[in-house]
Amino acid sequence: MAASKDFTLLCLENPLLDIQAFGTQELLDKYELKANDAILAEDKHKGLYEDLLNNYDAKLIAGGAAQNTARGASYILKPNSVVYLGGVGDDKYAAILHDAVKQAGLRVEYRVDPKEPTGRCGVVITGHNRSLCTDLAAANHYDLDHLKSPEIWSLVKGAEYYYIGGYHYTVCVPAIMTLGQEAADNNKVFIVNLSAPFLPQFFKDPMDESSKFWDYVICNESEAAAWAESHNLESKTDIKAIAKSIANLPKANTSRPRTVVVTQGTEPTLVAVQGNEQVKEYAVHAIASEQINDTNGAGDAFAGGFVAGLVDGKPLETAVDMGQWLARLSIQELGPSYPFPKQTY
Ligand code: 26A
User: What is the ipTM of this complex?
Assistant: First the structure.
């Protein structure tokens, strides 16, 4: 059944401004970055942002993984369907984010921190790889007080789907737990993206604490492998087996089985459902290499299309196909963006 109420989908994570440029191996080496990775900035990375802007003709593009997903879902859904929460500063970077979300029709309710700048993500593109290096700044100050404030809490109460970008496990676990409990208690749908290998690796405990709430898990093959590694699963490379073990973790709300969706770049997307022996495979929407602009945000776009399908009451295979469709559109744009005028699925 298609959702009829406003703001049925509520998303939470870290709003960031992407400082994105086409880079070189030399640049990656200078900051000890891997070609395809996502990390939190340490002191040695602090010069990256100015370097990208001054020497690599970097562009400023709206980012933040779940904010990209929320923009993607609102690209597809009827107006006033999606609201996004996170922390920003009171600066020109936040103004750029406001413009981008307005174009996509996404409502944002930011916690504005007057003392901290808006978070930045340095994005170094080399070929079809992207290296992400994030300085969270104001995004790191999101708190439960904001979530529980009357206006925001009424949005939480009104929503029927919650989408948590996994990167928020580094920021405010109580907010994640609160939304998870709210979902389980009211038979709402709780969706989590594992987001990056360092999360199951270094944030295993908060992830484990909340995994009972997960109705849908979205990840890619390297995040699944990192999960297998930190949970010491028998096979650390058999992605189907890993998807099944995540699907079969204990669940708080037993009225629906957990579904795990694993994207694998150009390889088929895998879907494991709790209690099912078989893991299904769905081919991606092929695209010629020369049509790809960059792959920054491809996974976020997939999640946006997939979640829009769920919210619109589409069957699982259609939701996966909507994810493939939106990812294909996004990789033809610069950064985690979608084409305007809008295309329709
Ligand atoms: C806490 N970290 C590391 C992050 C991120 C992040 N979004 C939230 N938190 N690190 C990178 N990103 C975003 O990922 C998108 C691509 O998938 C980037 O801002 C980029 O838009």
Answer: 0.94
